[in-house]
Amino acid sequence: MRLLIWVWSLILFSRAEDGVAAMEVLENVVGYLGIPYAEPPLATKRFEDPRPLRDEQIIPSEKARPGCFQMIRGKLELTKDQSEDCLYLSLLLPRNINADKKLHVLVFFTNANPDLKELARRVTPDLGVAQVSFREGPFGFFKNEIHGIKDILLSLDVIKKKLLPRFGLAGDVTVIGEHDAASLLSFAADVEGSARSRRRAPTETDTGSFWPQVSLKLTSPSSTASWAEKIETKRTARKAKMNRKRMSNRVVARFVEVLAPFDRAVFLSGNKYVGRFNERKEVVERNADRLLRATECDLPSETQALDCLRTKSISEIRNAIGEMKFEEVHGAPFQPLIDGNVKNVFPAIVALNTELQKDYLSPEEFDTSYSYTDFKRFLAHIISEKDYSNAPLLRRLALYEYIHSMGDKHDTYFLFEQTRKMILDKHFYAPTFRYAIALNSPQNSVYLLEHPQQDILYKCFFTTPDDSTEAFCKRFLQYIYRFSTKGAPTDSACDLNNPNWPALKSIKRDYFLVLNEDGQVEWEFDFHLRAIAFWEDLVPAMAKIELTGKREALFEEVSDLTAYEEEDDVQLWHTMEQPDLTEEKALNDMPLHFDL
Known about the structure:
Blueprint: H1 2-13, E1 23-26, E2 29-36, E3 70-72, E4 75-77, E5 88-94, E6 104-109, H2 116-120, E7 127-132, H3 137-140, H4 147-163, E8 173-178, H5 180-188, E9 198-199, H6 204-210, H7 227-254, E10 256-257, E11 264-268, H8 281-294, H9 302-310, H10 314-322, E12 348-353, H11 372-382, H12 391-404, H13 412-439, E13 446-451, H14 456-462, H15 470-486, E14 512-515, E15 521-524, H16 529-543, H17 583-588
Parallel strand pairs: 6-7, 6-8, 8-11, 11-12, 12-13, 13-14
Antiparallel strand pairs: 1-2, 2-5, 3-4, 5-7, 9-10, 14-15
Helix pairs in contact: 4-5, 11-13, 13-16, 14-15
């Protein structure tokens, strides 16, 4: 049977006359490039769920195919390396596959079109590599749709059920994504109707399928039996009971019901809890409506509107989005509107960069025209009346936490710098730790990591690391390889050159690992405790306090009001009105109740 599978695979993947040929990427690595996993999402299939292909249509191309369009800072990026016809994957395998051994597969979800030769260097005799493109932005998440997540699920189904069996292989899959891709992979883990890896106690059928059935009939010692026979019978019964208990424990420890699209995950600076993917439904739907108006497709019914939008060119959609302004604190303009709770657990590395991703302005992009007015507008967005009760009070707390206790409010560069820290704390540090804890369980291992490198996939996997990143990437690659093949990033041995990386809840303290730029590692605990305490404990508690008096929104979320036309300072429950408030007075002589 294995020979037949091998022959069929050889025929299917090596018929050059059909444009189907395995490509020798490196000496010991064979690539199957540009494999379609769904029908092209073009014309009437735009804004539709991915449509599966027949088996005979899932064949490689002569080269890798472009990735899907990405949105960067609210703009739709159109490059020669991207296309709307983008639902493809590439599979890189060791040339000499041992069909008797399990092949692990590390699947990168990215639309960045990596250097496949560089990616092939990550292939080993027991680890294959795949790269998958999937829809993002309005094409993946328009209004209430989740086409992009369904792309992810279908691509993994094709890899595990269509491609690997063609080689007679059984293998497990580790997925890896960075920033938005990581968040969407995290959502995919809990999409309804797609069961996940979870442990359960074995049934009798399970036990029988894994272990030989042992039937022991033990009779009570008869009255005529010798005392030695009685003792031996009791000893045999006790031994059999211990064996059954030990067998049951072994089955519980080893038996994992794997119905998931992936077996393990590496989330780099993104997960389903981060603020970038937890905006209110009305904000996301409003962005979709704005796009319909900008393209003159705001028709009476949603069906008509989508049909109209399907007739628009990519350039027309890009130009329409380019005219729209999105507040960065609201995160991704187009995002999945699905349940954000963790329902299923699986081994995971949850990593976070110490800097914001490129979708956010960096401190180096400070504009000298930035003012205290701009800072207050930011504060009104990140702690808005629609998200929080007692928002004015909470903004005051944030002002003292991030400004008054840290620096000079007259320093506008400092104000802008602190807005970056607020986003990082509220939208990334606090929710990432909450996600890691939610994913952790006594039967599951979660490894928490902090690192300073931006775009870690590009620097360490998709291109050759330079001198400044070589040591960092070497260590990081070791972690990912071992996690993908062994289920843990390090072994449990005490090695000064490669310290053990403990899973959360595996020892007395919740240690996480800090991987520095020079490749050196440190153990730390109390992961950003102050930020988590402020945003996860203090803010929710203060939002529940019942206050009396008048409360009005500081700004409408889409408004041209200046910060001084309507102030928190006139909220009756904690201020006294001062009509002659000016910006100069606000900055130079602001008493306690005028700080906002």
